[in-house]
């Protein structure tokens, strides 16, 4: 009655299951799993007749050992399904967990971790299967509302500043030429230097070109121009229902004028035009109003979503051994897995 299988990114069935899901994001696709990490990615699939649940995870070696753990790609991931509410029977979910455990134990996998998607109600999958920890809030614009209702949620100062940007001659357009893309990448790097970002965020120029020209989801680079020059820009992805704000940057000379506000406003209009349901802006660093990035995004909507993560210790004995071997001092820390802290 039930079945279980594990797919890698080269298996066409991965993409078929993505396309059959009720709702998904670009973070779930095999393309993103190939481009975003150098480790092996796996899709754990449980099937109950015509219904399925699938969890994409990345297999990482644990340095200095013959052990491994599982994590998610950067962004908003977690399980997908063709069922809106993941309302599977307890028997099926127990079967899925048993099969998952058996694979992990056989392959020396100690723990599993996933960042969950703030727009998808995935929590029921993990009942009795590890812990779900609620973290920060994210911000989403409800594109099913009328344009007027969406704009009513804008902070008053946002409305004024967006109008002023248009009056001053700022325009937003889709970047399509290689020159425009290259200019945006330079602005993105400049932004990463300004915020002292970790090396992880310095994606190669090839990454940007591949991302904007892949076959598994749509993506657009929207740029703000002033006097013909690009001064800010952001990549937006578009899947079945979700428009996602991905990578962005603004030049130092124009950062005080915040042309990114105009970019986001135009992205919202594009999302409506394409018939999407959400423009997900993501969260900030800490997800509170004191966080400047969160405050910037919350100026566009008060539709806050809950971001959460899944933590699961598959092998408690080996997990505890790794924690001791790595001399972890704060064993009460929320960091997971502790041995990587």
From TrEMBL:
Residues 170-324 form the N-acetyltransferase domain. Pfam families: Acetyltransf_6 (PF13480). Keywords: Acyltransferase, Cell shape, Cell wall biogenesis/degradation, Peptidoglycan synthesis, Transferase. Signal peptide: none annotated. Coiled coil: none annotated. Belongs to the FemABX family. This is GNAT family N-acetyltransferase.
């Amino acid at each position: 009655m039930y079945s279980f299988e594990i797919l890698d990114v080269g298996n066409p069935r991965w993409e078929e299951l993505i396309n059959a899901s009720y709702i998904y994001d670009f973070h779930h696709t095999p393309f993103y799993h190939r481009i975003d990490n150098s480790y092996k990615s796996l899709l754990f699939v449980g099937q109950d007749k015509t219904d399925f649940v699938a969890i994409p995870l990345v297999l990482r070696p644990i340095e200095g050992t013959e052990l491994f753990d599982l994590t998610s790609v950067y962004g908003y991931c977690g399980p997908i399904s063709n069922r809106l509410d993941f309302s599977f029977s307890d028997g099926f979910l127990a079967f899925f967990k048993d099969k998952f455990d058996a694979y992990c134990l056989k392959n020396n996998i100690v723990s599993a971790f996933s960042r969950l998607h703030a727009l998808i109600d995935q929590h029921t999958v993990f009942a009795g299967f590890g812990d779900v920890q609620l973290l920060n809030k994210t911000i989403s614009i409800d594109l099913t509302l009328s344009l007027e209702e969406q704009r009513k949620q804008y902070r008053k100062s946002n409305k004024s500043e967006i109008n002023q940007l248009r009056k001053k001659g700022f325009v937003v357009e889709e970047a399509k030429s290689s020159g425009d893309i290259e200019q945006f990448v330079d602005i993105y790097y400049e932004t990463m230097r300004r915020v002292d970002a970790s090396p992880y965020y310095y994606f190669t120029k090839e990454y940007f070109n591949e991302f904007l020209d892949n076959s598994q989801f749509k993506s657009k680079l929207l740029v703000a121009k002033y006097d013909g020059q690009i001064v800010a820009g952001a990549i937006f992805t578009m899947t079945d229902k979700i428009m996602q704000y991905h990578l962005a940057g603004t030049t130092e000379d124009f950062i005080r004028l915040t042309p990114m506000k105009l970019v986001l406003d135009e992205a919202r209009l594009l999302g409506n035009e394409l018939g999407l349901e959400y423009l997900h802006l993501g969260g900030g660093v800490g997800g509170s109003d004191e966080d400047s990035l969160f405050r910037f995004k919350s100026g566009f909507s008060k539709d806050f979503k809950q971001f959460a993560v899944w933590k699961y210790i598959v092998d408690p004995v080996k997990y505890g051994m790794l924690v001791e071997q790595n001399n972890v001092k704060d064993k009460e820390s929320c960091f997971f897995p502790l041995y990587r802290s």
